[in-house]
Amino acid sequence: MINVPTILWIDEEGRIARPNDVAFGSNDFKEMTGIDSELHLERLRAWVRGEGPAMTPEETRAVQTLPTAAEQEARAEFTLAWWLSQRGHAEDAESHYVRAGELAPHDFTIRRGSMLIRGLDPMGEDFMKIVNEWTEAGNAFYRPIEPVSAS
Amino acid sequence: MSATLTLLHDGRSDEFAGADPARPAISPEDLEVALGWELQPEGLCQGPMCVPVDQDALVGDGGLDLGVFADALQRPLVTDEKHDVAALGASHHDRGEALASLQAPDFTLPDLDGNPHSLSDQRGKKVLLVAYASW
């Protein structure tokens, strides 16, 4: 998981029937995100009612994003930073938070998720700064597994 | 200089006395008890599975070098020497293999009243898992 919201379908046998994807529960943020929540909700309702398919294992694996070595190192840095923060060593934690973000710049669960404990604003200017840097470099903030453009 | 090393791994933390924070190392006994790996002539072994390792590099005066151990298992090891703490992450290879198996890993989280709920409790039902944040 590298951002929120993230959804995941799991079938009756505990098998992943749709991998991590971007989906909203309503269209409250549609203008901002460009993601129409109804597209996912329609598929979800159909799957739950037995009227529509989940993904096949082959389709699921084809769109899964598997973790890289750098992402796993970023998570280890985040673990270390969080441990230090929780014990009152915020200043010493900072370099580990920064390193985690450098290793996985697309992982906003790390970059945004660490902001509050670092004294940064996860809803304001500090957040917008990293998002703008990311998107102005040609990267998408939300990365759905298939087109979900708003009409 | 030796100190007590705190090792964060697999969702828990363990402490090992006498470790050099500049070169984290633990005893073979601690490796087996805390991390579930045993040093054998074939390499690092966990049950019937063994991973080759450069034993000359692994074994030193202070014990088994955790950096060499981590490299052999493709697990990230990051350290903070000032606080004598290290974090041993999960291997991207193992995580990728687990995800590609498509079997959702079980987990347990509390509800708002503190009652624990496990994913496996929902077996037999379709589950929509939603991760969100209020930041």
Name its key features.
heterodimer; A: 151 residues; mainly alpha; 2 domains; two-stranded antiparallel sheet; 7 helices; 2 strands; 47% helix; B: 135 residues; alpha+beta; 4-stranded mixed beta sheet; 3-stranded antiparallel beta sheet; 21% helix; 38% strand; globular
What would you say about this model in short?
The complex is a heterodimer of chains A (151) and B (135). Chain A is mainly alpha-helical.
Number of helices of chain A: 7
N-to-C order of helices and strands of chain B: EEEHEEEHEEHEEHEEE
Q: How many distinct beta strands of chain B?
A: 13
| CA radius of gyration of chain B | 18 Å
Shape of chain A: globular
Oligomeric state of the chains?
heterodimer
* Biggest sheet overview of chain B: 4 strands, mixed
If you compute it from the alpha carbons, what radius of gyration of chain A comes out, rounded to the nearest whole angstrom?
A: 18 Å
Interface with most residues: A-B, 50 and 43 residues
Low-pLDDT residue spans of chain A:
none
What percentage of amino acids of chain B are in beta strands?
35-45%
Low-confidence spans of chain B? none
Taking the alpha carbons of the first and last residues of chain A, their distance comes to 27 Å
Strand order of the largest sheet of chain A: 1-2
| Number of discrete helical segments of chain B | 4
| Fraction of residues in H or I helices of chain A | 40-55%
Helix content range of the residues of chain B, please?
10-25%
Instruction: Write down the overall geometry of chain B.
Output: globular
Instruction: Let me know the largest β-sheet of chain A.
Output: 2 strands, antiparallel
Q: Mean of the pLDDT scores of chain A?
A: 94
Average pLDDT figure of chain B:
93
